[in-house]
Structure formats: structure tokens, C-alpha cells
Amino acid sequence: MASEYEVLIFGGGPAGLSAAASVVRQDHKTVLFDSGNYRNSLSKHMHTMPSWDHEDPQAFREKSVKDFERYGSITMEKVEIETLKQREDGLFEATGGGRTWTGKKVILATGVEDIYPDIPGYAECWVSGIFHCLYCHGWEEKGKPSAGMLAEGDTAAVVPALHFARQALRMVDQVTLYTNGNEQLAGELKAALDAAPAPMTVNSKKITKLVKAPERARITLHFDDETSITEAFLAHKPKTKLRGNLAQQLGCAISPMQTVVVNPPFNQTSIKGVFAAGDCSSPMQTVTSALNSGTCTGGGAPLQIQAETYNQRAIF
């Protein structure tokens, strides 16, 4: 038999927890599915979060779940959902681990996965020496002489590369932009710096491997000419993809940036009754943005349920 709920929330990160924190205030029977896979699982500190600065993300998740206990309307399920569909009767049905759940509304907060570039050692240096966001990481390395910026993937263009490099200059004296063998981009970056000088240099050598140095966030880049350079840290935002395929299973529209298309203010997707929050629904992939969008979906799903209960029209 299926376990029946009003709201099904998929994802136990900031967006899913924020959605649940809103839904619970309207006393709707809700289940939150937490696969235990978090994009920031390797991070030991959160930043840009008032009252939670430099604190452990795992402690934040645990505290959030603890807060739900007094309400009694939220069920937490540690399970990876395998299938999600809308039945002919309009209910949504989720299955995973040999069990089934149904609900009237769906909130997708499944997040994204980072796609690492094909550079040996990159994965081993992720978070510890490679920073994808210089608001989340970097300040702790302030005062060092130099850092690197990897112009590869999403940052393999002049504008985003210089954007990251300028941020890094708030922490260090000089930044080197590494194009990993991309001579055309190297030329474009050099031309941009000739036109508007900054304490930045360009290195177009092909990177053969990355090695985490033992001190703090220091990282050593090895090149195909057998030389190497050690930086205080390396800034780089890799490409991302949606985590899992639940949105695709439901037929939700996906944007060219590979996020779920949503409509403000409640972040409903192209499928009525399906909402999306957090990294999976926006290119602005930050904790604070996830909390905001989670709150929006946690308001939208109950509003629809309440209107439908009395055969009335919802405000959206």
C-alpha cells in the first residue's frame, strides 16, 4: 500500500528544508525524501548565512530536522527515489527502496551535480583547494601573494574569467588566469588586460595534473612542459547538471542552462502542482537563494491544496 501525504518534498538540503519549514506552518501532512547526497557534503563551513557563519552544513541540516519534531506533520525518509509520476487520478506517486508514497503536490529540491573537468587530481582538490564560489570560500586565505583562476568550462570566456579573478584579488595580491591550453582564450584575456590593466597574468600551458599541497588551501598545478606552480587556491566553477531525473520523469520543462523552468513567485514548474526550489531551479546556486525559493514553493503548494479543497480557484 502507498503511504498517503499532501505534499511530497524531494531533497534534504537548504531548499527542501526551507520548503518544509513553510509547509509545516500550515499543517499539511508532508514527507521529505532525503537521499543523503549533498552538493556541499565536502564543505565543513557555511557562509553568507546570518547566525550560521562558518558553521558546519551537517549541523544546519540536523538542526532543521530537529525543529520539525514539535509539529508532528513532517515525515523524514532517508531514501533515494527511483520513479516519480502523475497518476490518472491526479495524485503524484513516488517509489523507492521497494516502497510507494502518494501526494497531491510535489516540491523538487533535488539540486545539481558538479561536472569536473578532465584534469587528473581535480576531484581530489575540490573544496580543499579549488573554490567554486569566492563568497563561500576564500576569505580564510586572505593576505597570500597569489591565487589561480581556471578558465575552463563555464568560466572559459573573458567576462566570467575576469569576474572570478577580480573577486580573488580581494584575497591575494595577484591572480593568474590558467586557460589549460586554450590559446585563443589566452589571447583574448591578454587583450582585455592590455585594454584595462589589473594585477593579473595569463598562463596558457596545458595542465597535466593538480596536486593538493599540505598547507591550508594551497594547490600545485603541473604543466606539460614539466614545470609547476603552487597557488594559495584555485578558483573555478565547473559545469553542472541536474541531480537525478525526477523533473524529466514528470515532463517538466528544462531551460538551456539545464535548470527546471519555474514561474515566480511560487516557483511552479510547467506541470501544475509541481514546484521546484534551490539549485535545480536557478543559475543563482547559493544557500541563501535556495532558502528563499524553498520558502516560495512552501507557500505555493499549500495555497493550491487549500483552494482545491473547497473547489475554489487558487491565486496562481
TrEMBL record:
Residues 5-294 form the FAD/NAD(P)-binding domain. Keywords: Flavoprotein, Oxidoreductase. InterPro entries: FAD/NAD-bd_sf, FAD/NAD-binding_dom, Ferredoxin-NADP_redctase_2. SUPFAM superfamilies: FAD/NAD(P)-binding domain. The keyword Oxidoreductase applies. The keyword Oxidoreductase applies. GO terms for biological process: cellular response to toxic substance. Transmembrane segments: none annotated. One of its GO terms (molecular function) is oxidoreductase activity. Belongs to the class-II pyridine nucleotide-disulfide oxidoreductase family. This is FAD/NAD(P)-binding domain-containing protein. The lineage of its organism: Eukaryota, Fungi, Dikarya, Ascomycota, Pezizomycotina.
